[in-house]
């Protein structure tokens, strides 16, 4: 799995001509992911009415983009307009493990949403939110 992740990261990092391009890319990808994840979260938390079709449509977007930002944490992208902490690079294995944990939980949430069940979605939402928070706590400036 690591080899596959590393191979995917090479072409992605090669697409950025300047480090600031990578920073902009990952911030944009996180923004899109958060917007659509937030819509599912609002339903799962009872803050918005449950709509199985809307949840599925939003999760489709999340699943399309949830791994994109992690391809843009290459060398030289640790400065400038970023909230990433130095630990992203100094503890790269821990950062990758956090990203993998989020991706795993996101896959389970996607499967739950696809059942059309509010209860399944609500149960699967918490672990994703927890993995996001843990990564923010350890790898993102407040």
Automatic annotation (TrEMBL):
GO terms for cellular component: periplasmic space. Pfam families: Cytochrom_C_2. Keywords: Electron transport, Heme, Iron, Metal-binding, Transport. One of its GO terms (molecular function) is electron transfer activity. GO terms for biological process: electron transport chain. Heme c binds at residues 132, 135-136. InterPro entries: Cyt_c/b562, Cyt_c_II, Cyt_c_prime, Cyt_c_prime_subgr. Binds 1 heme group per subunit. This is Cytochrome c.
């Amino acid at each position: 799995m690591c080899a596959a992740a590393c191979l995917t990261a090479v072409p992605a990092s090669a697409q950025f001509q300047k480090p600031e391009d990578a920073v902009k890319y990952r911030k944009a990808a996180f923004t899109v992911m958060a917007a659509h994840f937030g819509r599912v979260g609002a339903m799962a938390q009872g803050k918005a009415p449950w709509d199985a079709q809307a949840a599925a449509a939003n999760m489709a977007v999340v699943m399309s983009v949830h791994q994109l930002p992690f391809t843009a944490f290459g060398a030289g992208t640790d400065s400038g307009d970023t909230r990433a902490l130095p630990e992203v690079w100094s503890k790269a294995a821990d950062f990758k493990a956090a990203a993998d944990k989020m991706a795993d939980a996101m896959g389970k949430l996607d499967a739950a949403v696809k059942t059309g069940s509010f209860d399944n979605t609500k149960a699967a939402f918490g672990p994703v939110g927890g993995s996001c928070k843990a990564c923010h706590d350890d790898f993102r400036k407040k």
